[in-house]
């Protein structure tokens, strides 16, 4: 019976046997080559990780360098470097000799020794660079003091700067070579599959009438493949879609695309419908022209890839609640061929928002580091004790500014009064910064003043107008905190130095006033000398010292900017090309302190005072006609009054003289102004003064 069945179904049995043998052969080859491809894929992933690790090591070195003053951050950076070095070293060794290493998911992955010629060259060259590099990196990880760590860091960073790009290229060459090996195996697998499918089809036609079930199973396989395609499109993290030459999106696309663009049913849309509301018209038109070039057979895609206008673009996406969110997308375009003709363009969209934010944070960190170096350079030239006192005064002033900003005010008059009160403190910070040659403080305070002037020039002021001042205040506070930290460190260094090498604020030198004269005169392109007398002969209280210092600073700035002429003008007036400012402190009696500041400049210009008063709108021409010379000159003590044509770092604030007058009056003092056209100006301040009994004795 069996013989009869075999005879009857001999062809069927043979066909089935051939079919099974063919399937078994193809499956075995698929199984074997798939394992090889899987191993190659692991190798490609780990070689790609080597590229990333080479960059992470450099980043870790810079993190260690920037964190040397922060033990917690330093420890974190050292741990990161240790992890990176170990991963890179073990993986490179595995590529060289074959071994099991830790994969990206933390699980062990076995790597076969690379055998292709180009891969061996890349590994061997990488070993040559890595061996000394590893020694330098291990030295950095050694337990040493910060000074030794700094020297080792310099050596490691220097070596990394010279060799990191080469090492990165070698790892990139290794990745490319491994990808080629994997690609060749995949090609071989495809050939085997093609041959197997062809033979299977021949066999299928032979037995198709006897195996109708196979047709159904084949349909099931096709359906399964379709589902797999859908699953792939639903799970990939990139936006994928095809675009035809009419800029229409294909019906099949990755599901993440809908999430990225907060849109549904993207298939069938045009590119303009997808991007029209989130990019500018200019970018959209440029993109369409670029895509049109991709459909031209006469243009090579690699020659125009750099013209991609959507390589990095900022978009505004509305979320489910209607709020707009800023994101950064990166579009890449690849041609899709059919019968050697360009059929579609495959578009890949990546959300690179986190990368862009990280780049900006790194740029900001770099900017802050450069700012710190600039600040450090400036404060190294300042007297440490004067600097500490100044920083303390800055924080006190900023605290007052913060309190003023918090005060509830609604009317325009109240808000302008609030603005003037803030201006007083900022102007003082700026003036004292100039006297200490602290350019960074002076620059930030000047920007603060510019914001104040912009608000003051408005016809009506509202509470929202003060928001820029809050931002400026925060910037000034952060800068002051940074300077305070550096100042405290400098002070600790100075305390270890011999006392004779440190200038005390109480030594009476007042040399910061000389620095101020030099700084302001250079900016005004004038020549000015300063003569001081009496400042070191009288022991002043902290309050009087602060007042006299502020009067001197304000007077010097006024003299250099408004009073003393340019060298050419002075020569035409038969004066020396260099102007002179005299500052004198003396006791006119046992109970009165006299302070004066005098210059040999042009003198107070009453015509300019009159013009500025009319321009301010606070006085009419009729009122000013009734003023005598003394009353007219007294306008310089009015709040917000200035004869400067524009607001600069040295003039135009309209704040200073009014504050000094208030402070002098608060001490029951008097101010006198004497000025002669072409001869100069002298401002004298008389203040009640009582020397302590201890000092008098």
Descriptive report:
The protein is of the alpha+beta class. It has 4 domains: 2-210, f41 fragment of flagellin, N-terminal domain, CATH 1.20.1330; 233-351, Beta-Lactamase (2-Layer Sandwich), CATH 3.30.450.20; 365-506, Four Helix Bundle (Hemerythrin (Met), subunit A); 510-696, Histidine kinase-like ATPase, C-terminal domain (Heat Shock Protein 90). Helices cover 61% and strands 13% of the residues. The chain is built from 23 helices and 12 strands. A 5-stranded antiparallel β-sheet has the order 4-3-7-6-5. Strands 8-9-10-12-11 form a 5-stranded mixed β-sheet. A two-stranded antiparallel sheet has the order 1-2. The protein is elongated, with a radius of gyration of 40 Å. It starts with a helix and ends with a helix.
In short:
The protein has 697 residues and is of the alpha+beta class.
From the structure above, extract its key features.
4 domains; alpha+beta; disordered C terminus; Four Helix Bundle (Hemerythrin (Met), subunit A); Beta-Lactamase; five-stranded mixed beta sheet; 697 residues; five-stranded antiparallel beta sheet; f41 fragment of flagellin, N-terminal domain
Chain-wise SSE layout:
Elements: H1 2-8, H2 10-66, H3 71-97, E1 99-102, E2 108-111, H4 117-141, H5 146-207, H6 212-235, E3 239-243, E4 249-253, H7 256-261, H8 271-275, H9 281-294, H10 301-304, E5 313-318, E6 324-338, E7 341-351, H11 353-379, H12 384-406, H13 412-435, H14 439-456, H15 467-495, H16 511-523, E8 528-533, H17 542-563, H18 567-572, E9 579-589, E10 592-599, H19 606-616, H20 621-625, H21 629-633, H22 657-666, E11 670-676, E12 680-688, H23 693-696
Helix pairs in contact: 2-3, 2-5, 3-4, 4-5, 11-15, 12-13, 12-15, 13-14, 13-17, 14-15, 16-17, 17-22
